[in-house]
């Protein structure tokens, strides 16, 4: 086990060195750990009864955890490493590694993808942020800081939402409807992610189709279509399809996992482990696939506070136990909310497609991948193996369609 890890790391290092920037071993380790966090966090969220769509960025969650480690002392800080399974990492390596990872995967120039990530720590009006903390959280995690009067709930909510909307170019209009606990600190991630497909969809081939939310509820969504060569796997035993859609210049890809027919996603979620996803990916075959994908924007805001506590971050969120005194120099704060909000836009845009294969044998008998019912998705980075996003779309926005039966 230990040996295979070493060999694995060396191989990773070799692959990485072929690219322009080589990641440090700390960043590589944290990419790996945050990929595990992706699955455990997804599962704690998916089991909540009233959760519909889920969109989480595990690498961004990891960097918010890094911020907690930066502001925390003693076990409040060390719990972060436990949640990340990175107990052996020194503090400076944790911060430098997470910082390096996020900088690498969110680099718009090399990645050719739109990903706006805005992070802010809100504190109550009484707090005074320590200079050292402000400096380091900006440097490592690109966090800025703001004081807010949480007692005036309405203006606090408005100012948080306005900041999120402004910093995402209007894509994410709302992070929260309410703020609780006027004495706590609040983490807010406001993001906008729009995949730039390695091969774009036809701009003229967009029409309105039904998306089945449940057997008795269908919404109308714009559907985009294209046929091309993709890595595809049909798991006949588990009755599901897996499709890999490369982004940019294949620096990352979006993996879609969809049951054959409409059904609640619980069954697939039981199968959803990192190992299983790797197994599916290893069985893929590059072949013609006719894809129909909703051209939609999904906006979701999750408060991760409770879920992170479930994964072991119990102290930072507990007013009686939290020691976040590196934030302010005093033991006067705890983490009352962790808002993790994203707008995900699926659109036609991408690189021009290869027209030379049109009409050839290669595109004969495509497999149909018709996304008209709930699915799970991952955005996986091809260089670091980290997971940029994991989530599910179960209920897109759209007008209810008349039942056809
Ligand atoms: C946090 O506080 C401790 C003790 O005061 C100090 O040694 C450490 O450097 C601080 N950490 C940061 C990241 O400022
Ligand atoms: C990605 O590349 C395409 C074509 O080279 C370009 O038009 C587009 O603006 C790029 N997008 C981003 C986000 O860099
Ligand atoms: C990862 O990148 C390599 C090299 O560019 C490419 O051959 C491979 O197809 C990519 N993998 C995915 C899943 O896009």
Automatic annotation (TrEMBL):
Serpin domain ranges (all copies): 39-396
Main subcellular location of this protein, as a coarse class: endoplasmic reticulum
Keywords of this entry: Chaperone, Endoplasmic reticulum, Glycoprotein, Signal
Ribosomal protein among keywords: no
Biological-process GO terms, alphabetical: collagen fibril organization; fin regeneration
GO molecular function, one term: serine-type endopeptidase inhibitor activity
Residues in the signal sequence: 1-18
Keyword Endoplasmic reticulum part of the UniProt annotation: yes
Subcellular location as annotated: Endoplasmic reticulum lumen
Pfam families referenced in this protein's UniProt entry, alphabetically: Serpin
Assigned GO CC terms: endoplasmic reticulum lumen; extracellular space
Family as reported in the entry's similarity comment: Belongs to the serpin family.
PANTHER family listed in its UniProt record: SERINE PROTEASE INHIBITOR, SERPIN, SERPIN H1
Function: Binds specifically to collagen. Could be involved as a chaperone in the biosynthetic pathway of collagen.
Protein name, entry field: Serpin H1
Organism field: Oreochromis niloticus
Upper lineage: Eukaryota, Metazoa, Chordata, Craniata, Vertebrata
